[in-house]
Design goal:
By secondary structure, the chain is an alpha+beta fold. The chain is built from nine helices and 17 strands. It has two domains: 146 residues, no CATH class; 120 residues, no CATH class. The protein is globular and about 45 Å long.
Length: 295
C-alpha cells in the first residue's frame, strides 16, 4: 500500500486543518482493529484496502493482480466525532446479496452494484457503499458484511512489490502525472480540476475514489494490461468513449458510483492489453477531452 499512499499524497489528497482536528476525536486504533489492518492516511481520511487476494481472476489470458482490478476499499472522512464513509467492495456474484443484507441491517447504504470488466473469469461485481454516522459502528457493519464473503479479513504482511518492467518515465510524461508501484501494478491517479463534493464534503481526491485512476500491469515485452476508471461529467462521456475506442481501448462500463455528489460524476471503465506507451498515448487523448488536472 505504500506506493498507493505516495500517489495519493502527490495528487493533493489534503484536507483542511479543521478536518485534521476532527480526526483526532475518532479512535482510529479501534477501527483498525475491527477492520484487521491499518488505514492509509491522506490528510484526515483513513482508507482501508480489501484486495481479493483469494481469487485468481483471468481476462483474455491475463491473470489479474489484486491491485489492477480487484482492490476493494473503504475510506472514512471525519465529521467531528462522526464520519462519512465511502467504498467499493469486490464480490463474486454469489456474495452480492448476503453482503448487501448485512450492510442494510447495519445502516450502511449501497449506492451502486455493477461490473467493471468484461469476460473476466470468475466474473466479479463491485458494490459501492456510503454512509454517515458513528465510524466504529460503520466499521463493524462493513466487517460483518465482508465476513459473509470470502474477502480476506486479515491484511497480508507487506512485502517488496514486483518491479514494473515498463517505461514508467515515459508513461508519466504522456499522462502528465506521476505514478507509483502498487503491488506490481503501475498506478496513476489524476484528479479533476473542479472540486467534487458529497453532502458538502470534498470527495474529489484519489483517496476518496473521486479521481481518474489508471493502472498498468506489465504483461511482457513492454506490453501492459490496463484498466481503471475515468471520472467524468456527463458531457465528457461521448468524446472520451470515441477517443478510447479510436485508440484500441475497450470501454467496459459506464455508470455512477455515488448518489448526491456535485457535479454529477459518471465513471467510465476500460480495458486493453498492448504496448504500454501506445496505450498511454490513447489514454492521454481521452484525458484531453476532460477537465483533468495536469502536474
Amino acid at each position: 500500500m505504500k506506493g498507493t499512499i505516495r500517489t495519493l499524497a502527490a495528487c493533493g489528497a489534503v484536507l483542511s486543518s479543521v478536518a485534521v482536528a476532527d480526526a483526532q476525536g475518532i479512535d482510529w486504533g479501534k477501527i483498525d482493529g475491527i477492520l484487521g489492518r491499518t488505514g492509509a492516511v491522506g490528510g484526515a481520511v483513513h482508507r482501508y484496502g480489501f484486495p481479493r487476494s483469494d481469487l485468481q481472476v483471468t481476462l483474455d489470458g491475463v491473470t489479474i493482480r489484486p491491485t489492477l482490478a480487484l482492490g476493494g476499499w473503504v475510506a472514512f472522512q471525519p465529521m467531528g466525532n462522526l464520519a462519512m464513509v465511502m467504498g467499493d467492495l469486490v464480490l463474486l456474484q454469489t456474495e452480492v446479496n448476503p453482503v448487501m443484507a448485512k450492510l442494510i441491517e447495519g445502516g450502511v447504504d449501497v449506492t451502486a452494484v455493477h461490473n467493471h470488466l468484461l469476460r473476466a473469469e470468475p466474473l466479479t461485481f463491485y458494490m459501492h457503499v456510503g454512509g454517515h454516522g458513528d465510524p466504529v459502528k460503520m466499521a463493524q457493519t462493513i466487517h460483518d458484511a465482508l465476513a459473509v464473503s470470502k474477502t480476506p479479513l486479515m491484511a497480508a504482511p507487506a512485502g517488496q512489490p514486483p518491479a514494473i518492467d515498463l517505461d514508467t518515465a515515459q508513461i508519466d510524461q504522456i499522462l502528465g502525472a506521476k505514478g507509483a508501484n502498487n503491488g506490481g501494478v503501475y498506478a496513476v491517479n489524476i484528479p479533476r480540476r473542479d472540486p467534487i463534493t458529497e453532502q458538502g464534503m470534498a470527495v474529489g481526491a484519489p483517496i476518496m475514489g473521486g479521481a481518474t485512476g489508471i493502472n498498468f500491469q506489465p504483461t511482457g515485452g513492454g506490453k501492459a494490461a490496463i484498466t481503471g476508471d475515468f471520472a467524468l461529467i456527463g458531457s465528457e462521456v461521448p468524446d472520451v468513449v470515441r477517443a478510447l475506442r479510436s485508440n484500441g481501448i475497450e470501454v467496459t462500463a459506464i455508470h455512477s458510483h455515488m448518489l448526491t455528489e456535485e457535479p454529477r460524476i459518471i465513471f467510465l471503465h476500460f480495458w486493453a492489453n498492448d504496448d504500454a506507451v501506445k496505450l498511454a498515448r490513447g489514454l492521454r487523448a481521452a484525458l484531453d477531452k476532460t477537465a483533468s488536472a495536469r502536474s
